Amino acid sequence: MVSENIVNSIEKAIKSAPKRNFVESVDLVVNLKNVDLTQPKNRINESVVLPNGRGKPTKIGIFARGDLAIKAKEAGADLLLSPDEIAKMSGDKKQIRTITHGIDFFIAEAPLMPSIGKSFGPILGPKGKMPDPVPSSADPVPLINRLRRTVKIRSKDRPTFHALVGSVDQGSDAIAANVEAILNTVQSRLENGIQNIGSVYVKTTMGPAVRVE
User: Fold this and answer.
1) Could you write out the DSSP letters of every residue in 115-184?
2) What is the pLDDT of residues 61-78, one digit of tens each?
3) Range of the domain at 143
4) Quick one: 19 and 69 in the same domain?
C-alpha cells in the first residue's frame, strides 16, 4: 500500500500543471540536509529499478561483438558498437558525444572495457553512464529489460537532486510506488536515514513543484 501523502501530492502536481500537447514526465526532487557532500562517500549514486517502469522509452547502448551483439540487436538495443567502431572513434570526443547522446544506459562485453574506458570514459564517466560489463557468453535480454525500468539517482556534491519517477499517464498509485522505491533507496544510503532528508517534492516536466508532507 503506497503512502496516501505521496499519492495526493502527485495528483495535485498533475492537476496544477498547465495542459500540454505531449505526455509530461513526473520528477521527484529530494533535498538533503546535514550531509557532508564534499565527501564522495556521502554522495548518492545509485541505480533504482522502478516497480512500474519509467513511463517513457529508455535507450540502451551496447558495446559488443559476436553472439552478444546479435542477441542485443534482437532485444532492441538502440545503439550497437563493435570493437572496430570503438577503435575508430578513439580520441574523437566530438563524435563520441554525438553518437552517445540520448542513450540512457550502456552495457559492454567485459573484455572490451579497457578500450571503452580509454576512448569513451572521459565522456561517459562524468555523466555516470559507464557501461555495466557482462561476460561474452551472457544473455543481454534480462539486463536490457531491467535497465528499461531503471533510473539513476546522483546527488554529486549538491544537496538537491532530481529523479524521473514516471509519466502523467501512468496513474498516481503507480507513480507513488516508484517514488517510494527511490526514497527507500536514498534513506538506506544516508547515515541517519529519513532524518537526512530535508524535503521532497514532485512535479511534472513543466509544472510547479508540490511538496510531499
Assistant:
1) HHHHHTHHHHGGGT-PPEEE-TT--HHHHHHHHTTEEEEE-TTSSEEEEEEEEGGG-HHHHHHHHHHHHH
2) 999 999 999 999 999 999
3) 60-147
4) no
